[in-house]
Design brief:
It is a single chain. The chain is of the alpha/beta class. The chain has a single domain, classed as 3-Layer(aba) Sandwich (Rossmann fold). Helices cover 44% and strands 20% of the residues. The protein contains 5 helices and 5 strands; from the N terminus they run βαβαβαβαβα. The protein has a 5-stranded parallel sheet, with helices on both faces. The longest helix has 15 residues, at 14-28. It is globular and about 40 Å long.
Length: 135
């Protein structure tokens, strides 16, 4: 079975993951799949599994404040491991230094603040992704 491209959503709050998934499915349910992780550690595990299955992860949307590894650190490491994957940080609490690290070290395509607007999230994903099927 061939899987389509994936958008990976990472947040330690299940309600946020559910909301993100629901909103994004309205835009792209027929062309992309969505995976969720409740921590950076879980996201790394998923990324390895998807890479082994040769599934493209088009974009990762990550929260900043999570147990274990914070989103700015996760996205900076993601940039090194998967340079072609789009990187978006979604936060309600990031401090100015973390925001600067996300811009400089992670080269995040966008930083969105909670609460976000669905269209703003859609536009950020379009900017961060190279997937032609999203347009």
């Amino acid at each position: 079975m061939i899987r389509r491209s994936v958008i990976l959503l990472v947040d330690d709050e299940k309600t946020v993951l559910d909301s993100l998934s629901e909103q994004l499915r309205r835009f792209w349910s027929s062309v992309v799949e969505f995976e969720t992780a409740e921590s950076a550690e879980e996201a790394w595990e998923l990324l390895r599994e998807l890479a082994e299955a040769r599934v493209e992860v088009a974009v990762v949307v990550s929260d900043w404040l999570m147990p274990g590894q914070r989103g700015d650190e996760f996205l900076a490491q993601l940039r090194l491991a998967y340079p072609h994957t789009g990187r978006i940080m979604l936060t309600g609490q990031a401090d100015p230094l973390a925001l600067e690290r996300v811009r400089s070290e992670a080269s995040a395509h966008r930083i969105l603040f909670k609460p976000w607007q669905p269209e703003e999230l859609r536009d950020a994903i379009l900017q961060a992704s190279t997937m032609e099927t999203l347009v």
